[in-house]
């Protein structure tokens, strides 16, 4: 990312705050002139006092000078304080507003991105979060630098330089020559540091991601007693980071010393030149202080240059990935425009091949028909591609080739949001949001009344348990057990009331009692809809009117339970394994004994 690109990218965010910027700029100009007053006052003071000394004037006759000086300095300080307050306040306001806009726009944008964006390894949650945070904070700092720090400093420097030239051409020249040397050194410093900064970004992203992974895997780490190994792995990245930080500091300090040296040479030159002019009686004594203060007004802002360079560089590096995320228009979900008044739910996949973005080929020439208003079970071993079928049917991913039809219309022609509004998805572990039970159910239909919420909960067979809680529907949903949470998800689905329902291993995470408890609610949600269920539960599979068997990304068998069982193929094998694992003989015997 180049500075001009960065500028172009930031401009739309700054534009709405034009007025704020004009106010800040106006105050900046006033402040820059006010900042020079001290130099003039000091010159006046030294000259007047040296006159008094030379003329041996009594102290009481010189007192009015002190009065004038105090009045001017006080007046200047009052104006300067007001200006500074305004500058800081409006600058800060600008910064806060822009930070808010950056955050909001990136959140709005990534919500429109397709699933592949989120499953991309580069966008793992820790990395994405660091990239967004670092991008926003460096961009906000850049805006702060520019409108709160740089502009006032540079305007002050330029005004001071003009006064130096007005005072004496040669003195002005010393000031003017120092500036480009300083610029050059700062620019070299920034160039040297940019590599380190890029590494730092990489280390930060990985470190944060590693910490998140560590917390996620804490049970496994502890059960295998791998704390030492994990700590050692983390230490490596810390060491690399430290090394990088030390190199950054070393480079910075070398360049800082060099710049300090140049500045001192400038001051010495100003003193020598002015002393010469004073001795030559071309100037008064006060000129020495006057010039040094003016030179200081030039060099102080320039001294900040490396910080500004650093931060611009930071902004270039961090904003690069921030804007890559913000402007990833190719990641936007595609959508058609077809919005039929009614969906029946006849689904057909024809010769569908699908490859995940990481290259894993998950579906091979898959063809299947899912009849409307029936229950179709997808059966197969883990990794067979069952969830992938649901992913492509929900338009979370797009087939690499082949076609999918819903009610005879190609899925790609459907308005994606409309399609998803007509599909209900119940997963292995349904996401329960932080908040009340009522709000979690209401997620299925945001504007539903509490009565509708209750009716949905009744249909999902969870109402009775909710009202027994001390706070009823206002209880925290996270407190519910896995089985109860699953029924909340089903209640949500009743409110959404879609004609098509995909159930992806809805009971896989539940114990036998919970599975038994949610059976009623699952049965209720299936009625009168097109249902596709992925399950390893025998009872749910034999409930289906149609079974599709998958193996290694292919459809290998297709028919009713009886047909497939008699076929003595893959289904027979899987079904028998499931039945055997239940140890039916013992179960039957135990139940008979009772
Ligand atoms: P099933 O639901 O039958 O257990 P999946 O559809 O989840 O199988 O997986 C099919 C294949 O696709 C597997 O090899 C799996 O590793 C791979 N896969 C699943 N999800 C992803 C993903 N998000 N990115 C890459 N590969 C994936």
Automatic annotation (TrEMBL):
Membrane topology: Multi-pass membrane protein
Gene Ontology terms for molecular function: ATP binding
Occurrences of domain ABC transmembrane type-1 (ranges): 22-314
Signal peptide positions on this chain: none
Membrane spanning stretches: 20-42, 62-83, 169-185, 261-279
Locations listed in the record: Cell membrane
Chief location: membrane
UniProt xrefs under Gene3D superfamilies: ABC transporter type 1, transmembrane domain (1.20.1560.10), P-loop containing nucleotide triphosphate hydrolases (3.40.50.300)
The keyword Electron transport is annotated on this UniProt entry: no
Keywords: ATP-binding, Membrane, Nucleotide-binding, Transmembrane, Transmembrane helix
Ranges where the ABC transporter domain occurs: 347-577
Source taxon at top rank: Bacteria
Family annotation (Pfam families): ABC_membrane, ABC_tran
Keyword Transmembrane helix (UniProt): yes
SUPFAM superfamilies the UniProt entry points to: ABC transporter transmembrane region, P-loop containing nucleoside triphosphate hydrolases
Stored SMART domains: AAA (SM00382)
Official protein name in the record: ABC transporter ATP-binding protein
Organism of origin: Sphingobacterium bovistauri
